[in-house]
Amino acid sequence: MKQSLRICHLYSDLLNLYGDRGNILALMYRAGLRGIDANVYTLTIGERFEADRYDIVFFGGGQDAEQNIIRRDWVGVKGDAVKAAVENDKVFLCVCGGYQMMGKYYREFEGEQIDCLGAINVHTVAQKKRLIGNTVYRCDFLNESPAKEVFEPQKLYGFENHSGRTFLGEGVKPLAKVLAGSGNNGEDGTEGAVFRNVYCTYSHGSFLPKNPGITDHLIEKALKNRLGEEYCLEPAECKTENIARKQIETCKKGLTRA
Amino acid sequence: MKSFRTTAALVVAGTIRTVLRLAGKGATNLPGKIALRICPSFLSKIAYGKNVIMITGTNGKTTTTHMISEMLRKSGYMVATNVSGANLAAGLATTFAEYRSRERRAVKNRVPAVYVLETDEAAFAKTAGELNPSVCVVTNLFRDQLDRFGELLTTRKCIEKGLDSCNARILLNADDSMISALQKDREERVIFFGLDEAGMTRNIVTNTEDSGSMKPSSDAEYCLKCKKKFIYTARSFGHFGIFECPSCKDHRRLPQYAAYCEQEKAPNDESTMILKKGEHIVRTSLPIMGVHNVYNSIAAAAACVTFGEEVGDERLTIDFCAKALPDIRPAFGRMEKINVGSKSFCILLVKNPVGLDRALCMVSEASDVGGLYLLLNSNIADGTDVSWIWDVDFENRTFPDRLYVSGERYAEMLLRLIYSGAAPENIRSAEMSQCEKLFEEALAACPDGKCLYVLPNYTAMLALRKYLVGRFRLRNFWK
Ligand SMILES: [Zn+2]
Known about the structure:
The complex is a heterodimer of chains A (258) and B (479). With 258 residues, chain A is an alpha/beta fold. Chain A has one domain: Rossmann fold, CATH 3.40.50.880. Chain A is built from seven helices and twelve strands. Chain A starts with a strand and ends in an 8-residue tail after the last helix. Chain B is an alpha/beta fold. Chain B folds into two domains: 47-77 and 112-327, Mur-like, catalytic domain (UDP-N-acetylmuramoyl-L-alanine:D-glutamate ligase, 3-Layer(aba) Sandwich), CATH 3.40.1190; 334-472, Protein-Tyrosine Phosphatase, Chain A (Alpha-Beta Complex), CATH 3.90.190. In chain B, 38% of the residues lie in helices and 19% in strands. Chain B has helices at 4-22, 30-38, 42-47, 61-74, 89-98, 100-108, 121-131, 146-149, 152-164, 177-180, 197-202, 291-311, 318-324, 353-365, 410-419, 435-445, 458-472; strands at residues 52-56, 78-81, 113-118, 135-138, 169-173, 190-195, 231-235, 241-244, 257-261, 272-277, 280-285, 334-340, 343-348, 369-375, 403-406, 427-429, 451-456. In chain B, helix 1 (4-22) packs antiparallel against helix 2 (30-38) and helix 7 (121-131) packs parallel to helix 9. Zinc ion binds next to loops of chain B.
């Protein structure tokens, strides 16, 4: 029987900046390599979140104005259902603003403290200076992934553009260690967060296209939830992705050191 | 009175320019940079009492500037203008230094002079007050170089700051909700231009509404004030359209200057175009293909007529502009078609998502496509973040069989094409150092009678252009 992957794209009409759409395209493409049909469901303001309808949920970043529009709906309309889904091990990928909104609160620069969902134990404090630039991280669990022969498999490549500094609380592990760039806060050398099956990062757009290891890891996790722990994603090559990864290594001049 | 410092700055800038020119370099920034260092108030001193028109916004600046310049030239003005890309303070200062003697001669011969200056949005915040233009054109606001500006609203604030530091008449794009809202508290200075409603229903072949689950990105779907989703009764492209906020009822204003093309599909360079100033209607033809050039045309015409009103030049009417438009050739890197024997190539600078989206849309619809060559660099002038290409709708476009990619970040573009469904065996790729060779290969493979479309971003275009100037004996771009 042909498998399917059901992807939920949260607030796709509002959070569409910095190429985050590339992440959805990557999930679709790499699922497609295994003959898995990927279907994307968009969910916007006013619509209820029904976890059973999706295998994986993507929550991207946007500009402050748009994130303010979303926050009320996120906490008020979708909040309880999302929290329950997190506790039930639903797979989430949250980038930048989405990452911040999964956490407990966001304190504006010289402004107020805004309550966020609190689904994971992290909080964010904004500062005036934005952290912008190309990034490289090291992610240990990527050694085993259904993506075959990834060039430097443990490395994650991305681009960050955020004014918020995020700090991890108890029970939350960092996604990776910063090799180049600022990561969570520019201080503790951590990048992103993992809590149950919630994966968070500050790496914007084309995070998944450039990192097929984590793409396949997420697809497999998502399908295991529905098909059972014994389900394994077939291995698949990453020829084109590897060209892009190698080229970033040779273009390192654009990378800022942490 | 010019101060000693201003004079010294002028002399030094002039000398440097001459030396650089003799050395074969386009001196578009350095002379002005040094002039500003010698005399920090150089711009306000040199521009004092001169006619200045400034053009800012994220897309279409170069073409609009070029169109205004050509129209004013045709009506007998000595037009001083900056070259594309030299649109920061240093580039503006260089332009003033460069045209100094020509302007003097013009004044002597009773020829009116005008400076038509495309200005970067961040530079606009500082220079508009110094140059005190009589007319400012704000083309639009799309995401562009967010690694530099951080956010779109920061860019908008720069524009606001510039507008409030001068007394210019302000021409705003009515169809862009982010721009048209700038009229608030500036009502008596603002004039709107836009696509006529007829154009939104006729000229638009790509409706963002029916692209399935992966809608291409739009920059301003929500009212900034009420955070409610705009209701659109018609759309052109991106977030342009006839919008209304269901809550505060803020809505698209009827543009005093409007345009559209007559036929039922995407306008090309032979399309009949209708220009309207209020009730007055005049027919002309669109000089450069693409619906975004309908916007540039009407913005330019509106700017010329408004400038005429400001300086009391009655020859500058909408009819005059309509007559001047068809002869205008594309500006540097904006759809110049260059014939090579029985085939041609065409360069289209793409710097940001909406620019690439428009270019791909045009290539998809053009009947003469003999190949598509994309080049992606990530230098500071390009933006160091290349992820914007993922915001562009490749999925709903038709690509030619022959695809080529190069640039320092060509692999990201290769990945983008392959993820959108392009067959890897149809794509040839090469490092930036081999981009010229790949161009030759692409041109050789282009069938007779067809055109190779080349879409580079900024520094990739400069590099390729340099090669092409020598190879095809093109005019140097800074001339
Ligand atoms: Zn409103």
